[in-house]
Design goal:
The protein is mainly β. Helix content is 8%, strand content 45%. It is built from 14 helices and 52 strands. The protein has a 22-stranded antiparallel barrel. A five-stranded mixed β-sheet has the order 3-6-7-4-5. A four-stranded antiparallel β-sheet has the order 15-14-23-22, with no helix packed on it. Strand 37 and strand 38 form a beta hairpin. The longest helix is centred in the middle third of the chain and has 9 residues. The protein is globular and about 95 Å long.
């Protein structure tokens, strides 16, 4: 039963520029016994007759994609159980973080930098701003014929960044005619409307006319969704469960003003601060005029745009209604492939696509505090205090409140927090463009040997521009400090001062970055010699690759003086050459046993590595297949990981256990030219059984170990470990004479490593085939992650499956002490689920079809809701399992027309409550796995002619 369908008999030639391999789809067992033809199996360069090979591959067909009702590639890959938000990037995560519009996949939770993404077997350029990941949304969905996911670490076969696996998008070719499609969808709660249109056209028949040109055009627009449009995302805290966002303090929070009194080398006392100062509080917690803070009232809070938090007894700013849960995204993609038969033995081919994406997002107004301004070096350069200073002569100075709560500061200048409502909500755009061009020749020489050779050019460019709400910090501090007209206890200022605040906005370019790769690859394959069990086949090849990156922040970005952008960004221009050679041999040991041995050598300027891979395929019966593999790999750090200049940034809010201060602190971030390559070992073992003619089951065990892991540690974890005297971390935390943190070193390092293992399950059951009742089928794809252990530089092991926190001890009251799991925080969040699956039920009869799909993920342990009494024991939050159901109906009763009507999240389920504590701008829920569209109703139409 493990045989090739007649419809799949054409050889799907694919190439990787880094490997120069031709590979093809490995599907799951099929239910037809048609003529068998040799095909190329993903993970190998050599054609063979068997459909199921020695490596596990999941295939998502064009029809599967249509049934999912997706409008972009990110939505498609999020349905895969093997893909994870840990190490990847979703569109939602781009709200408030510097993703620059990137969407990236992460197989096995190992990271997008260890997930190889291909189109027709060839590499794309990494995203220009990120430098380590491919933007999956740049791939035109209408042009995709099917997707192959190699769920086995394969850097020994494919190249250095295939440790976690390979995602290969195979584009449509030899298409003839026209196909027009359109989709319109919307949510039941508002926001998030989606429109999409596509055109695929093809000319010529390759076999008859000796050529074919297939082209596609995709355009799509997804509207934004804001927190105010979703009940679960409207608040940064919960009066029952705790704080979701600890950093969103309101205007008016006071700290003592601590200027230096020490002259510099020129004998001048500079305008710098000794430290952040001590917290006094917010006068709105009592009254602005001051009565010792004895009266606490919610009515005071609304004056400066904040709200009352009963359990904390304080005013807090609630940013959540203003935060984009999803940004507005406009996309346009074009693609083309051309094939020309020179003669019976040789072919010229050309593949290309180009994508354009515009991402627009708006957020809450910019906040200001001493901790935010401390990293801005422009204050030192311009000799300005890094603070907004409120003088006793200011009519809004809360003298009585300060005297009652901090007598030593009475009558003294103080620093004050402020949120710049008059500057407008922050708005910016990211424009990304990607091109992919491949041309080459393939065919047969000397009658028996297949060859292919190709040149590939990839480029990615990203531009970010601000629209409003991002102030020049020094200008704003100079404007408001010592200004008697400034009132930090009002949401908006006088019209004249408001205009001056708006005038400090920086509107213009923040970043223009490009990354390009050029490669030349070639290979030759054929049969070598015969042995008693069959014929030994071989493949040899090589590639040359050149990579160039130009990260060019604007002059304003380089100053580090633009609010909301944190550290100064410094230019990076870097390039490197790499080369590889490989060989592969397939040996039929017995009639039922086949061995495949591949070896590959990659050479980079700073490293050379040779990695083998051995896989075995044993089929004792036609209904049973056993497969196993073992290989090693390595990943040379990306240019940005090596050479990105180090600079200061601001951490999320956390508690310093030494001083008891809960704040945001300065951290040093950036690259590390001394990084070593990551190394890996990976192994798998699987069983595929055609239990009956209509039932197929595949179970595969996988295990991957990565050493010399390139990562950046969570700053809160660094501080906590340094506080308990862990020698591996004490040197990473700097403090001033009073014990306040001045800097945390959190640059890229080689950590101990990662180890993960688990099982993949794939069940396909044709439950019923009836002329009277129709055809009914069931499909289950699931992943069980048994372990994901992160080893830190000091040897500490963090077990990170189904948890976002690690218990590191107990406090004096016996309450647990937690830190964020570094496996999560070093990759912008996410959850490694113990079990995740997609279960679909299909029914078709004549022109009608229905598909019901369950998307399921297990529960996990989340962070600790903090801030007040409802959680006195400090226990972490338990998040339950979560599932949604999707339904789609199909009608094909009109010639050449296919109509689909679908509903995603049929029950309109809200996400489970989650505590992310600064990992995202969104609060109360986790954007790494939940789609805030909620119930989404869509209709599509496809017409072919």
């Amino acid at each position: 039963m493990i045989k090739e369908k007649l419809l799949s008999q054409s050889v799907r030639m694919m190439f990787t520029s880094g490997v120069a391999l031709s590979v093809s789809m490995l599907a799951h067992p099929v239910f037809a016994e048609d003529e068998i033809q040799r095909v190329e199996i993903t993970g190998s360069s050599i054609k063979r007759a068997e459909k199921e090979g020695s490596l596990p591959v999941q295939v998502v067909s064009h029809e599967d994609i249509q049934k999912l009702g997706v409008t972009n590639t990110e939505q498609l890959l999020n349905t895969l159980s093997v893909n994870s938000a840990v190490g990847g990037t979703t569109s939602a995560e781009g709200a408030g973080t510097t993703t620059y519009g990137l969407s990236a996949a992460s197989l096995r939770s190992l990271g997008s930098n260890k997930t190889l993404v291909l189109v027709n077997g060839r590499r794309l350029a990494n995203y220009a701003s990120d430098g380590t990941s491919v933007d999956i949304n740049s791939i035109p969905v209408s042009m995709v014929d099917h997707v192959e996911i190699l769920k086995d670490g394969a850097s020994g076969v494919y190249g250095s960044d295939a440790i976690g696996g390979v995602i290969n998008f195979i584009m449509r070719k030899n298409f003839s005619g026209f196909e027009v499609s359109g989709e319109l969808g919307g949510t039941s709660k508002g926001g998030g409307q989606s429109t999409k249109a596509g055109l695929v056209m093809g000319f010529g028949d390759y076999e008859k006319d000796r050529y074919n040109m297939t082209m596609s055009v995709d355009v799509a627009k997804d509207d934004a969704i804001y927190g105010r449009q979703r009940s679960y995302a409207m608040n940064a805290w919960d009066e029952v469960n705790g704080l979701w966002d600890q950093s969103a303090t309101p205007s008016g929070t006071l700290r003592t003003f601590r200027p230096t009194t020490t002259p510099n080398a020129g004998g001048v006392i500079p305008n710098t601060l000794i430290g952040l100062g001590s917290t006094i509080g917010n006068a709105l917690d009592g009254s602005v005029t001051g009565n010792g803070g004895g009266v606490k009232s919610a009515s005071n809070c609304t004056a400066n745009g904040s709200a009352w938090n009963t359990n904390q007894g304080t005013c807090r700013f609630n940013p959540s209604p203003m935060v984009a849960l999803l940004p507005e995204i406009q996309r346009a993609n074009v693609g083309a492939n051309f094939r020309f038969k020179l003669n019976d033995n040789h072919e010229f081919f050309f593949d290309a696509f180009a994508s354009h994406q515009l991402t627009t997002r708006y957020l809450q107004p910019s906040p200001y505090s001493v901790s935010f301004l401390a990293t801005d070096k422009q204050f030192q350069i311009q000799n300005v205090y890094p603070a907004i200073i409120l003088d006793p002569s200011n009519p809004n100075y809360p003298a009585a409140y300060i005297a009652a709560n901090r007598p030593s500061a009475a009558g003294q200048p103080v620093t004050v927090s402020y949120r710049a409502f008059d500057g407008g909500g922050r708005g910016n755009t990211d424009t990304s463009n990607q091109t992919h061009l491949t041309s080459g020749f393939k065919g047969t020489v000397f009658n028996n040997y297949d060859y292919d050779i190709a040149y590939t050019h990839n480029s990615s460019s990203v531009t970010e521009n601000t629209l409003q709400g991002f102030q020049r910090q020094v200008d704003l501090a100079k404007l408001l400090s010592h200004n008697p007209l400034f009132n930090p206890y009002a949401a908006t200022q006088t019209p004249a001062l408001a205009a001056q605040i708006a005038a400090t906005n920086y509107v213009g370019n923040m970043l223009t970055s490009t990354l390009s790769t050029d490669s030349l690859d070639g290979k030759i394959t054929g049969e070598w010699f015969k042995v008693p069990a069959g014929t030994v086949a071989f493949a040899v090849g090589g590639s040359l690759r050149n990579e160039n990156m130009d990260f060019n922040p604007s002059a304003a970005y380089q100053t580090g003086d633009i609010a909301g952008y944190g550290a100064q960004a410094l230019p990076l221009t870097a390039s490197r050459h790499s080369a590889s050679v490989f060989g592969e041999v397939v040996v039929p040991v017995l009639k039922q046993l086949e061995a495949d041995l591949a070896v590959r050598t990659d050479r980079y300027p700073n490293a050379t590595s040779t990695n083998p891979k051995l896989s075995l395929r044993y089929q004792p019966l036609s209904q049973v297949l056993l497969r196993a593999s073992y290989g090693t790999g390595f990943r040379e750090p990306a240019l940005v990981e090596l050479y990105k200049q180090q600079s200061q940034a601001t951490t999320p809010t956390f508690l310093d256990p030494v001083t008891g201060t809960r704040a945001q602190f300065t951290q040093l971030v950036g690259g590390n030219p001394n990084l070593k390559p990551e190394k890996s070992e990976q192994a798998s073992f699987g069983l595929v059984v055609d239990a009956t003619k209509d039932l197929s089951v595949a179970v595969d065990y996988w295990k991957i170990r990565v050493s010399d892991l390139v990562t950046a540690l969570d700053p809160a974890f660094i501080v906590q470990q340094a506080a308990v005297g862990n020698a591996g971390y004490t040197g990473l935390v700097q403090r001033d004479s009073t014990g306040n943190i001045t800097q945390i070193t959190a640059t890229a390092i080689n950590a101990g490593g990662e180890k993960t293992d688990g099982f993949d399950v794939d069940v396909k059951w044709r439950a019923l085939k009836s002329a009277e009742y129709g055809n009914f089928g069931v499909r289950l794809n699931g992943t069980y992650t048994h372990g994901f252990d992160l080893t830190l530089p000091d040897g500490t092991v963090q077990r990170s499956v189904a948890t976002t926190v690690i218990q590191t001890g107990v406090d004096s009251a016996g309450h647990p002490i937690y830190n964020n799991s570094n496996a999560v925080t070093s990759t912008i969040g996410g959850v490694i689920f113990r079990w995740k699956h997609q279960l679909s039920f299909d029914w078709t009869k004549n022109a009608y079809g229905l598909t019901l799909t369950q998307n399921y993920q297990g529960g996990y342990t989340d962070n600790v809701p903090t801030g007040f009494a409802p959680n006195p024991s400090g226990q972490a939050l338990k998040v339950g399992s979560f599932q949604t159901w999707d339904l789609q109906g199909t009608y094909t009763g009109v010639k050449n027309l296919t109509l689909r009507l679908g509903v995603k999240n049929l029950q309109d389920k809200n996400p489970p409550t989650a505590v992310t504590l600064g990992e995202y701008f969104q609060t109360g829920w986790d954007p790494s796995y939940y789609d805030p569209h909620g119930r989404f109703i869509y209709a599509t139409a496809t017409y072919k002619f």
